[in-house]
Structure formats: C-alpha cells, structure tokens
Amino acid sequence: MTTVTLALIILAAILAQVAVVMLSGLYRRKRQCRDLDEAIQGAENISKPSTPTGSAAESFTDNPHRDGFKEFVVQRREIEDGNNSICSFYLVPADGKPLASFRPGQFLTFKLQIEDPRNRELKSVVRCYSLSDAPRPDYYRVSIKRIPAPVDQPDVPAGLSSSFFHDHVQQGSRLLVKAPSGHFHLMDDEPLPIVLIGGGIGITPMLSMLNTVLESGIKREIWLYYGVCNGNEHIMKTHLQTLARTHDNFHLHVCYSAPNDNDVAGIDYQHNGQVAIPLLRNTIKLMRYQFYICGPRAMMESLVPGLEDWGVDSRDIYYESFGPASLIKHEKVAQTATATQPITVTFSRSGKSIPWDVSADSLLAFAEANDIDVASGCRAGSCGACQTPVKSGELDYNQEPDADIVPGYCLLCISTPKSDLTLDA
After folding, report:
1. In this structure, are residues 334 and 234 in contact, taking their beta carbons and an 8 Å threshold?
2. Quick check: 171 and 125 in contact, CB under 8 A?
C-alpha cells in the first residue's frame, strides 16, 4: 500500500467520524426543540381554563354513548316529603365538563337499564322528569315521585322507572342523561306577572320557574298555587315559606284537599280544597298574566277551559299534564291536508290493521289505546324514544319535533296519519 493510499484512507475515516458527530448533534437539537414545543403546548393547555358555553349541543358532544346521552353521577339524594315518596336527585356530569343550560320548566330524558318484572330480563327504558331547580353551574336536580300500584288494581305493577330511582339509584350511581329539552318553559318575551299552578308532583317545573325569577332580582309579580292532599305530600315547605317571607312580589297559596289533624290552616296551608277557578278569581284581579299549569289531566280539563271562560287569552295559558295521558300544549304546525276518506293504520309486527280514530291525539295514544306495545318517553317530540319505522303512507306532525328523526322513521307522540299508514310496530 502506497503512502498516498494510506493517507486517503485515514482522511476518509476522519471525515466519516466528523459526519457522525454532526448528524448526532443535529438529531439531539431537533429532539430538544420538539420536546420544548410539546412542553410549551402542554403549558398553554393547562393554563387555558375551559369556558362554559351554556350550549346543550356543545356540552353533550364527544361522549361515547349514542343518541346524545351522556353519563352523569348522582352527587346526592334527598327525601322531600313526609310520605317518603318524593326524592330529589342531584346530578353532575361524569366527565366534569360544564353543564348545558336550560329554560326553567324543561325536563331531562333518562335512558335506564331496568329489570323487567315479567321475565327478569334487563330492558332499556326511556323516561323524562322535569328539572326542579333554577339553572345552576354545578348540578341538575330532578324530584321524582314513587308511583305505587293503583289502590283499586293491586295486580298492576308500580311505576317501573320511579321505583327504580327510589330503590336502586344512590349517591355515586351513574345514569345516562340527555340534554334538557321541552316546549313547556318560562316565556321571557313579555314581562307579564306570572301565575304558577302545580298539582302534586306537578310542582317541580314550577319550582324551577319560581327560583329562577326570584333569584334574578327582577320584581316580576308571581302567584304560586300548589295543591296536595295534606302536609305529608307537601314538598319543600320551608323553602317556599322562606321565599314568601323574603320576596314581597311572591304570593304563596297552598291548598290541602284533605288536611291531617295536625295540619294548621294559615300556617301549613292557606286554603282547604283544590286549586280551582273560584279560588283564582277570589285571589287575583282579572288582568293579563302568563299562566303556567302542571298537574294531572283532570286539573287541565278543569282549569284550562275555566280560564278561557273567565276571559284569559288562550295564548297566555301554558300547561303540561303528566301521567299516561300526558299532553303538551303547543302551537301546531299547519296541516298540509285534511283527510276526506277513512284511514287505516297497520301495525305490521303486531299484526293489527285498525281504522284511525280522529279523536286520538297522536299515533302514540292511538297505539296504546289498541294495546300496541311501543316505547315512549317525553311524549312531546323531544326524546325520540317513540321513533318508529314507516313502511308506507304519509303523516302530519302536530308540532316541530325537537328530536333528530332517522330517515324513514316518525315520532308517534306528535304525529297523526295523513293517509293509510303502515308502521313497523
């Protein structure tokens, strides 16, 4: 090997070592820069607090559950009445994200997994319960009454979902909840005085409206008429009495239809009997109010026509009934056509074809009246529980639905047939 060749080999080795050192240094520098960038980004993420938006859509996105349901944790529960039949449940989001706001009077929709007493199998049950407090930044509250078996029908099972809440939902329980919704809520378009009427557990949306208005500081006159049997059913008595003492624009009228011996008139309640038109006429002067009513259907059938007969504009009467015949008052959408021929509704899976009853409020009510087993929840077009495939035919909606409807499906609770109709039910 010549001297020149050896020198070239040594020089090549030296250059290779220099290149390795330079490449190694460049790699370390790039890694340091990347780590620094990640550290800065992490610091920015930590230092930027999440901002509550109040938007139901934003607060209920990015959850692992279908149909807009989100997991909530029961923070605590409180019995509210002397019969131990009404319990309030305080709910917080499991992911710690801000709560969606709501309009006072609206409800929450729950998707529950409950054991069917007939066959001991778990089944999915959708139920809706009114929010019973003003919008809060840290929790939702619902107050649920246990529904027992009818006294005259002991073989009929007790309320499935209400019994589940009372017997199985404890502090720390996790529930699937849909964003607040509902057409029955406080209207803010005109600052009219307000008359709230609640019968039994129908007091819950009234509590939401009452707390909201009084806490706002707006001196809007409010009358609350609350009807129960006696003191054992009277919920949040101390809270209501305190509000009446501390707000001169709040006028409380509690009615006991069957007072106990230890119920004291003028202290525990103001009126003996039920909430009725004569009581309203004797305690408020006829002027323009917004009337909000929630209670059994019998109360609706008495008070709503009675108010209209008294001269109250129907547009100022807002009501929600509860129970199996729940109805929501709303502005109906324009009907595109009026049927002139008899209509037949076919429930294909049930094997029944039945002439449509024009007096039925909805396809859901019609199905139930004919012993067709269909799921239901809010009965107001909001929860989507009664969504059913339409195999043929056309229908009309009584109102604009809140729930997202899958193409080819319909909401039974707010629709009626426009022609012969076949449903996959």
Report:
1. no
2. no
In b/e form, how buried is each residue of 210-221, taking b as 16+ CB within 10 angstroms?
Answer: bbbbbeeeeeeb
Phi, psi of 124 (to 5 degrees): -85, 125
Residues 355/366, Cβ–Cβ less than 8 Å: no
Alpha carbon distance, N-terminus to C-terminus of the chain: 96
* Model pLDDT for residues 124-146, shown as the tens digit of each residue: 888 999 999 999 999 999 999 99
- pLDDT tens-digit series, residues 292-344: 999 988 888 899 999 999 999 999 999 887 643 344 444 444 444 445 689 99
- Which has the minimum average pLDDT: 114-123, 357-366, 385-394? 114-123
Q: Which residues contact 158 (CB under 8 A, 6 or more apart)?
A: 146, 147, 148, 149
Answer whether 327's CB lies under 8 Å from 297's CB. yes
**Token representation of residue 73:** 């944790």
Strands (E), 351-408: 352-355, 387-392, 395-397
The confidence score (pLDDT) of residue 64 equals 44
Query: Has residue 13 got a pLDDT over 70?
Result: no
Residue 9 confidence (pLDDT) = 62
Q: Where are the beta strands (DSSP E) in 209-327?
A: 222-228, 250-256, 271-272, 290-295, 317-321
Q: How far apart are CA 76 and CA 78, in angstroms?
A: 7
Domains and CATH numbers, the chain: 56-149+156-181 (2.40.30.10), 194-321 (3.40.50.80), 344-423 (3.10.20.30)
